[in-house]
Amino acid sequence: MNITVVGAGYVGLVTGVSLADIGHYVTCVDVNKDKIAKLKEGLSPIHEPGLESLMLKNIDDNRLSFTSSLKECLKDTDIIYIAVGTPQNKDGTANLNFLEIVAEDIAMNISKDIVIVIKSTVPVGTNEYIGELIKAKIPKDISFDIVSNPEFLREGSAINDTFNGDRIVIGAENDKAASIIEQVNKPFSVPIFKTDIRSAEMIKYASNAFLATKISFINEISTICEKLGANVDDVAKGMGKDKRVGNQFLNAGIGYGGSCFPKDTNALVQIAGGVQHDFNLLKAVINVNNNQQTLLVEKARQRLGSLKGMRIALLGLAFKPNTDDMREAASIVISTGLLQEGAEVIAYDPIANEVAKHVLSEKVQFANSINDALTEANLALIITEWREIIELDFNNVRRLMIDPIIIDGRNCFSLDMVKDKGIEYHSVGRPALKGESVLI
Ligand SMILES: NC(=O)C1=CN([C@@H]2O[C@H](COP(=O)(O)OP(=O)(O)OC[C@H]3O[C@@H](n4cnc5c(N)ncnc54)[C@H](O)[C@@H]3O)[C@@H](O)[C@H]2O)C=CC1
Ligand SMILES: O=C(O)[C@H]1O[C@H](OP(=O)(O)OP(=O)(O)OC[C@H]2O[C@@H](n3ccc(=O)[nH]c3=O)[C@H](O)[C@@H]2O)[C@H](O)[C@@H](O)[C@@H]1O
């Protein structure tokens, strides 16, 4: 099939590269000309394991190309995937401006019957709304079908998730359109779930909201564990052994960040409000998460008293490991809180330093290695569980820091690993270790 993917961001790029890899001919279109220039040179604008090599392979095989002109590729296209952003408005609703512009662009340039697939995460009813917008502007002899095909990839494991996903959801208004998109996706060998358009749109929000709920739930449990001397990691493991609970997404820590959980949970609260339903449970999930992001600053304050003049190392900045994405990263809230208290902040991320320089306050200093960050620090905060951070050398912590105190926001180490290492270690939902294995 000849496929055009509109929006070469995270989702658009992974979608385009993967569809090419299973044998389709794909053109990715983006209005950002710098991004397209980079992509044409074979460089991925995002850090995502496996993406760039797969991209190069498919460019070499002439199945993947890039352009900034939608008009240019619409002539030969059978299917258009839309993967533009749907960011959050101030009131929490999803902003559909990018989608509306693309709809207009498609309507102006469409010259044959096609299938339009919306991959972007959109409120229930949006596929129909976009369909109406296009319909109103195209010649009467041209027809198209709209298909909702929400995306479930995770950043940092996007390629693996695409080829080994749990399901592909296809929401269509008729069997013909559904079966075209089913055929397109068949080579992935991922189970396909077909439904109506509105249900497909809701599956996406409900899935993200449910995962966010699991995270806030375990974070609440972690707070209680900490007060009662229990260990939340063992509690989560014990819970997860029950298949009905499941063992994933029960890692307590500093809350969820990223480009999707925060915006999608807020959007679902607004979607519910739009039909006069007060989504109290999800509001609580969001509140718990907001509080959780301030936890490390609070723990630092409790431990050191005043943070004024304290040199504090932030280890990891991205919202999760294996990505350079800083959108809604907890490091933003944490570094702001520390600076407000008068601390000196030295930040280090194995990959996201450059992106973070444009996102964090100018007052944040950047280190080129973990050791540089730790040198002469009074305290180290672990924000992101990168492999390099999980493999932290405790000898260096003792040797380089003024006081070897770690507050770990991701529970990177078991208490046994840190015991007897001469380090004061605080984590989330577990007893603290002071120096030589003394429980505080
Ligand atoms: N980032 C992620 O991991 C996931 C994102 N999603 C959803 O997918 C959608 C896209 O998200 P991301 O890829 O993260 O966004 P992004 O912001 O990384 O990329 C969007 C791209 O669309 C381009 N664009 C905007 N207007 C355009 C136009 N008129 N024509 C052509 N290109 C245009 C932008 O220049 C940008 O490169 C959102 O709705 C998001 O909620 C869903 C699952 C995972
Ligand atoms: O709609 C989206 O954009 C995507 O959002 C999430 O993917 P992503 O945000 O890339 O990453 P996750 O692995 O879900 O992590 C999100 C946040 O939750 C945090 N998290 C995750 C799991 C956990 O147990 N505890 C926890 O605090 C992570 O540190 C991170 O900050 C979903 O997992 C994807 O299925 C979905 O497609």
From TrEMBL:
It comes from the Bacteria. It is an enzyme of class 1 (oxidoreductase). One of its GO terms (biological process) is UDP-glucuronate biosynthetic process. One of its GO terms (molecular function) is UDP-glucose 6-dehydrogenase activity. NAD(+) binds at D30, K35, T86, T121, E155, K263, R327. It catalyses: UDP-alpha-D-glucose + 2 NAD(+) + H2O = UDP-alpha-D-glucuronate + 2 NADH + 3 H(+). Pfam families: UDPG_MGDP_dh, UDPG_MGDP_dh_C, UDPG_MGDP_dh_N. Residues 313-415 form the UDP-glucose/GDP-mannose dehydrogenase C-terminal domain. InterPro entries: 6-PGluconate_DH-like_C_sf, NAD(P)-bd_dom_sf, UDP-Glc/GDP-Man, UDP-Glc/GDP-Man_DH_C, UDP-Glc/GDP-Man_DH_C_sf, UDP-Glc/GDP-Man_DH_dimer, UDP-Glc/GDP-Man_DH_N, UDPglc_DH_bac. The active site is at C260. Its EC number is 1.1.1.22. The keyword Nuclease does not apply. Pathway: Nucleotide-sugar biosynthesis; UDP-alpha-D-glucuronate biosynthesis; UDP-alpha-D-glucuronate from UDP-alpha-D-glucose: step 1/1. Substrate binds at F152, L153, R154, E155, K204, F249, L250, N251, A252, G253, G257, K320. PANTHER family: UDP-GLUCOSE 6-DEHYDROGENASE TUAD (PTHR43750), UDP-GLUCOSE 6-DEHYDROGENASE YWQF (PTHR43750:SF4). This is UDP-glucose 6-dehydrogenase.
